[in-house]
Specification:
This is N-acetylglucosamine-1-phosphate uridyltransferase. One of its GO terms (molecular function) is glucosamine-1-phosphate N-acetyltransferase activity. Its EC number is 2.3.1.157. The protein has 2 domains: 222 residues, Spore Coat Polysaccharide Biosynthesis Protein SpsA, Chain A, CATH 3.90.550.10; 83 residues, 3 Solenoid (UDP N-Acetylglucosamine Acyltransferase, domain 1), CATH 2.160.10. The chain is 25% helix and 26% strand. The chain is built from 9 helices and 25 strands. It has a 7-stranded mixed β-sheet with strand order 5-4-1-6-10-7-11. The protein has a 5-stranded parallel β-sheet with strand order 12-15-18-21-24, covered by helices on one side. Helix 7 crosses helix 8. The longest helix is centred in the last third of the chain and has 21 residues. The protein is elongated and about 70 Å long.
Length: 339
């Protein structure tokens, strides 16, 4: 007789300003492939069918709410922002005595894959762990907290970079910040976590040390592709992650039967849909909620935004189409501007 898995709550931390973005816009609202960063994380979370979905908001809270609430998230306000542990603590009143598993994600980590998260959840539940940590091994772990293990190889602590000793800084296994935790343990442990560190913040990482001190099981999953867990802190990193994300989108369309002649010069947003046997010529941009039918030929150098093209449409070079519906077998001649 199999037992059903523990109910799941997901908490997405999205309260920070993102100082290193040097922007008037909150970091998690910066667009990547046509959607705010946090929208990609919400879309991943929804696929896990959680009982509770909580977004912790802070900087530009109202604007972040406008992205989160239509996707079914309940927003919890973190004001002021006193660290990741403090952020997660703001979700406790929303969860209202929830006793299942809590998955902690971040609104600026858009490349995380569904299979990776499911592997983390499976490991957590199979081991009956109080805390399960998603780790990664990096050639250059600069800037990340390190996973400290004991002589038996078990995790005994996570040490943030600013608080690490030289020996700990030599460790290449890093904390991604993504955890699954038993809810009763999590919120009890957060009451024991102080702010005695270089940042003067309440670190979520310190709950691992609480679990170890209480001799509760702590386990981990090491992600096979560390790129999945990279976050955005600067505009350079945003551009780097967007390039990876767009490459994935192109690959998915090609595997589904779309010809993309030059993926490196083609821009396709996350919500775009393309029918099979369509050919996308170089330097074409398909943006917003554009839907392209089957057997179309698009470009080169066409820009199509928020439009629907039926099957068999041909869009010749240098066309711009915005918020239009184009009928089946239509040819849009070169240099046309439809809006």
């Amino acid at each position: 007789m199999t037992t059903s898995p523990s109910p799941l709550a997901i908490v997405i931390i999205g309260a920070g300003k993102g100082t290193r973005m040097h922007s008037a816009l909150a970091k998690v609202l910066h667009p990547l492939a046509g959607q705010p960063l946090i929208a990609h994380v919400l879309d991943l979370a929804i696929q896990l069918d959680p009982l509770h979905l909580v977004a912790v908001v802070g900087h530009q809270a109202d604007a972040v709410r406008q992205v989160c609430e239509p996707r079914g998230a309940v927003c919890a306000l973190q004001e002021p922002q006193l660290g990741t542990g403090h952020a997660v603590a703001q979700a406790e009143p929303v969860l209202g005595g929830f006793e299942g598993d809590v998955l902690v994600l971040y609104g600026d980590v858009p490349l995380l894959q569904l299979d990776t998260v499911r592997t983390l959840l499976d490991a957590h539940r199979q081991c009956g762990a109080a805390v399960t940590v998603l780790t990664a091994v990096l050639e250059d772990p600069s800037g990340y907290g390190r996973i400290v293990r004991n002589g038996q190889g078990a995790i005994e602590a996570i040490v943030e970079r600013r608080d690490a000793s030289p020996a700990q800084l030599a460790i290449q296994e890093i904390n991604t910040g993504i955890y699954c935790l038993k809810s009763p343990f999590l919120f009890q442990a957060l009451t024991q976590v102080g702010q005695q560190n270089a940042q003067g913040e309440q670190y979520l990482t310190d709950v691992v040390g609480v679990a170890v001190s209480q001799q509760l099981p702590v386990t981990h999953v090491t992600v096979s592709d560390a790129q999945e867990t990279l976050g955005v802190n600067t505009r350079l990193e945003l551009a780097q992650l967007e390039a990876v994300f767009r490459q994935r989108l192109c690959e998915a369309h090609m595997l589904a039967g779309v010809t993309i002649q030059d993926p490196a010069s083609t821009v396709i947003d996350a919500e775009v849909r393309i029918g099979r046997d369509t050919v996308i010529a170089p330097q074409t941009h398909l943006l917003g909620q554009t839907h392209i039918g089957a057997g179309c030929v698009i470009g080169p150098q066409a820009v199509i935004r928020d439009s629907t093209l039926a099957d068999g449409v041909r869009v010749e070079p240098f066309c711009v189409i915005r918020q239009q519906t184009v009928a089946r077998l239509t040819t849009v001649e070169s240099f046309s501007h439809l809006k």
